[in-house]
Amino acid sequence: STGAVTYDPGFVNTAATSSAITYIDGDQGILRYRGYPIEELAEHSSFLEVSYLLIYGNLPSPSELEKFDSRIRRHTMLHEDLKGFFGGFPRDAHPMPVLSSAVSALSTFYQDSLDPFDDEQVEMATIRLMAKMPVIAAYAHKKSIGQPMLYPDNSMGLVENFLRLSFGLPAEPYEMDPVVVKALDLLLILHADHEQNCSTSTVRLVGSANANMFASVSAGINALFGPLHGGANEAVLNMLRDIQSSGEPVEKFVERVKNKEAGVKLMGFGHRVYKNYDPRAKIVKETAHEILAKLGGNDELLDIAMRLEEVALTDEYFISRKLYPNVDFYTGLIYKAMGFPEKMFTVLFAIGRLPGWIAQWREMMKDPQTKIGRPRQLYTGEPERMYPSR
Ligand code: SDX
């Protein structure tokens, strides 16, 4: 027992590290950030407050939250040279490689935020990343649609500023939609951390070489881009659209999945840890109807998704393999209804996951015991042999 939870003895040997940040029980479908159930945080908290909780370990007092908020607002502006950086990418560049490159480039602009063992520098890196990554993400989107990049407005909070930078135009004032703000804030909370997933493990592994926070998070962004990980939310919408345009009943698509046709998977289903319904997917599904109704989302794709879920959850293939909807199954429909193109869905996942990456990197730097460090292997190659004499 770790004092907080009790594990089966067998499990202990499989754990790559220990962490005090996020707890998942895959069989029960439990997710807690610093002990708080995700359902409570989704209902009562905000993305900024959850970010503070993950990074500093406790919910902030009103004055602590206000100070965190104002520090982030004061660091949203990018160096003009970094702003020019976007011009070097092709017009149709996917925003994820642009995001990872620009985040890595932050280490060339901010030498006062690189030392992983200097508390003040770690704090500066934390605030700079929380402030600048959403701006970089919005600029990557503007680059891909050939629109001008606005300067941040520090009178706005993180989510509002990001929406204005993503959709605002210099020629007219941006009209903030409170429904979109609330929906995006909720989705960012749901993505904020998730224990030792692929991208977080990447952040820890790169950071275990004492690489700075920007370089480590940049590596995490690249891992998240994988379609089996964060890239799944984009893949789900493509899958739903293919089913829609094929006109085939979902049952036919499900048969193709079960027959494992050419790598066809039910994207947005299954999970390495959850062998029950992903609690985040449950929350997203509950709000999807409400949000799509208000935003005028694509109901037909939502109907296809609901039908797919209905068929899969009653089919032995999925039941026997404990395949349930994960966080990516419904989120893309909401992002689309907000006005984001598919290419931006995984970028939105990255913005949500940022506080988790930062918290996990800081925890590892403080406690070398939790460094994944250098994994060992079992060698399965040739026995020793000599170079042939010629
Ligand atoms: C995320 O780790 C995290 O916490 C990640 C994440 C986070 O917050 O960071 O939760 C975010 O990455 C969610 C997952 C998003 N990915 C997808 O939705 C892509 C589709 N899902 C999969 O590829 C798959 O389910 C994984 C990779 C997510 C999990 O795979 P598992 O649990 O290791 O299962 P497996 O690959 O060993 O497959 C077990 C069986 C296989 O069939 P058999 O060989 O036994 O016949 O289940 C099948 C697989 O073929 N299977 C699927 C399937 N997922 C697994 N069959 C159809 N569709 C699927 N989605």
Report on this model:
The structure is a single chain. The chain is mainly α and 390 residues long. The protein is 57% helix and 3% strand. The protein is built from 18 helices and 3 strands. The chain has helices spanning 9-14, 38-44, 47-56, 62-73, 80-85, 95-109, 119-144, 158-167, 178-191, 198-207, 213-224, 232-246, 250-258, 279-295, 299-312, 316-320, 328-338, 345-366, and strands spanning 22-25, 30-33, 36-37. Strands 1-2-3 form a 3-stranded antiparallel beta sheet. Strand 1 (22-25) and strand 2 (30-33) form a beta hairpin. Helix 4 crosses helix 7 (119-144), helix 9 packs antiparallel against helix 17 and helix 9 crosses helix 18. The radius of gyration is 22 Å and the shape is globular. The mean pLDDT is 94. Bound molecules: s-citryldethia Coenzyme A. S-citryldethia Coenzyme A is lined by residues 194, 197, 228-229, 232, 257, 265-273, 321, 323, 326-328.
